[in-house]
Amino acid sequence: MPTSVPRYDLETLLRDDVPYGDLTTEALGIGAAPGQMQFVARDRMVLALAEEAAALIALTGCKVDLLAASGKVLENGSPILRAEGAAAGLLRSWKVAQTLIEIWSGVATEAQAIVRAARTVNPDIAVACTRKNVPGAKQFAVAAVKAGGAIMHRLGLSETILVFPEHRAFLGDMPLAAVAERLRRSAPEKRLVIEVTSIEQAVAAAVAGFDVIQAEKFPAADIEALVRRVGAMAALQIRPIIAAAGGVNAQNAAAYAAAGADLLVTSAPYLARPCDVQVRITPASAAA
């Protein structure tokens, strides 16, 4: 089954949890006993990292049947996967695979909630999740965000140009037009994005030629005012994309969409409560 995470990284997760063997299973002498393991949703959830969890279990020598794909909405009681194999493999992979699904399904579920809320108002609006995820877990975050129907805002500093006020602090009083010109000379194939904290800054950035204006912590009413003002600027050759960022969540996404934002930028899914996955492990004779 295809996964978005390389085999080596899944092996690393197993090594981290079971670096020198499963002491309890070995001490009990039950490792060779055949058994069966089932994962079942206890919450309504958008499933994420199911393929990776199944591949991780398979690394321990178990046969795995994946019963639901990442991105699917599951109800309480919906089956996720079933595995068969020696108790040693089942018990070794159990918690790592369960936690992988629970944490990242929580992210996917919250991402979908934001997407759904925004698209009830504007079916074409995009929801982008930031790079403010757990360091070292970016590949899992990306997979979960996609499972929830959102996209990634930027994958890292090497990917896109985004000018923050913290950058401008080192530029003195350099006009925004000169900043944009410098960036276009240095990276002519890249779009220019800038974060602003006021409507006046946003208008100045639009005049300077920035492609995307990221409005940080603007109330929805200010986004609406900005969209209206930029739309009325006849001198602009191309209207910049207006991105609402900072504090965007499932409760206010519809308001930002109604205000006219083209893009919602959020970190909220990364703070979501993990979903609940029930795991049943039984001897093969009991499972039969």
Topology of helices and strands:
Elements (H helix, E strand, L loop, with lengths): L6 H11 L5 H6 L5 E8 L3 E2 L3 H9 L4 E4 L6 E2 L4 E8 H33 L6 E4 L8 H10 L3 E2 L8 E3 L1 H4 L7 H11 L5 E5 L2 H10 L3 E5 L3 H12 L9 E5 L7 H7 L3 E4 L10 E7 H4 L1
Parallel strand pairs: 6-7, 6-12, 8-9, 9-10, 10-11, 11-12
Antiparallel strand pairs: 1-5, 1-13, 2-4, 3-5
Helix pairs in contact: 3-4, 4-5, 4-10, 7-8, 8-9, 9-10
Organism: Bradyrhizobium denitrificans
Family: Belongs to the NadC/ModD family.
Keywords: Glycosyltransferase, Transferase
- Total E-strand runs: 13
Helix/strand-derived category reads alpha/beta
Largest sheet: 7 strands, parallel
> What is the overall shape?
elongated
CATH superfamily of the largest domain: Aldolase class I
Q: CATH topology of the largest domain, anyone?
A: TIM Barrel
Q: What is the averaged pLDDT score?
A: 95
Q: What's the architecture of the largest domain, going by CATH?
A: Alpha-Beta Barrel
Task: State the end-to-end distance.
Answer: 26 Å
Beta-strand proportion? 15-25%
Rg: 24 Å
CATH class membership of the largest domain:
Alpha Beta
Helical residue percent band = 40-55%
Question: What count of helical segments does DSSP give?
Answer: 11
Number of domains: 2
Secondary-structure element order, as H and E? HHEEHEEEHEHEEHHEHEHEHEEH
The low-confidence parts are none
The largest beta-sheet arranges its strands as 7-6-12-11-10-9-8
